[in-house]
Amino acid sequence: MSDAELVRRALAGRAEAYEELVRRWAGRVTALCHAKVRRAHVADDLAQETLLRGFRALAALTDAERFGPWLCGIALRVCLDWLKAKKNAQVPFSVLGTNYDPDDHLYHTGSSTDDVDRDDERRHLLAEVEALPEECRKVVMLYYYQDLTYRELARILGVSPATVNARLTRARALLRERLSDCRR
Predict the structure, then answer these.
(1) Separation of CA 98 from chain center
(2) Does pTM surpass 0.90?
(3) Which of 36, 52, 88, 119 could form a disulfide with 79 if both were Cys (CB 3.0 to 4.6 A apart)?
(4) Which domains are delineated in the chain?
(5) Residue 64, exposed/middle/buried by CB under 10 A (0-12, 13-18, 19+)?
């Protein structure tokens, strides 16, 4: 069943239709939020907020065939709202004190050295992905989180499949360069 048909059914009061739309789009929305805000736990919350806003505004959707891009637009606005609020609520480093270490909890779990090394590598890789230019970061997060085709990515991002390929190629090259520099 198409997204458009599910939208029509959801508008007719069938809750299970919107549940199916959520199943189809939640991962993509989460990946998009993660690419935008660069924090996995925040991205989950923002994705839920997006899906809720989408449900509440579903009647305002003028073209049911464009549900996915419409929902991704809501996700971007939710992320921008969060980033704006975060910017206005930043705390200066001076309040953290001299003994504050945000990663302290990671090293007191009784993990083996291999687990700690693997966690360090994952954190480093994620940090490098998060440091990519936004257009590259978005395409990487959607491609690897959702295992989408180039055509699907192009439709979601509003670009051509060739542009998706170029962005993924650029992102991989940047990651290869940055990660190889760290190993030297």
Answers:
(1) 33
(2) no
(3) 36
(4) 1-89 (1.10.1740.10), 115-184 (1.10.10.10)
(5) middle
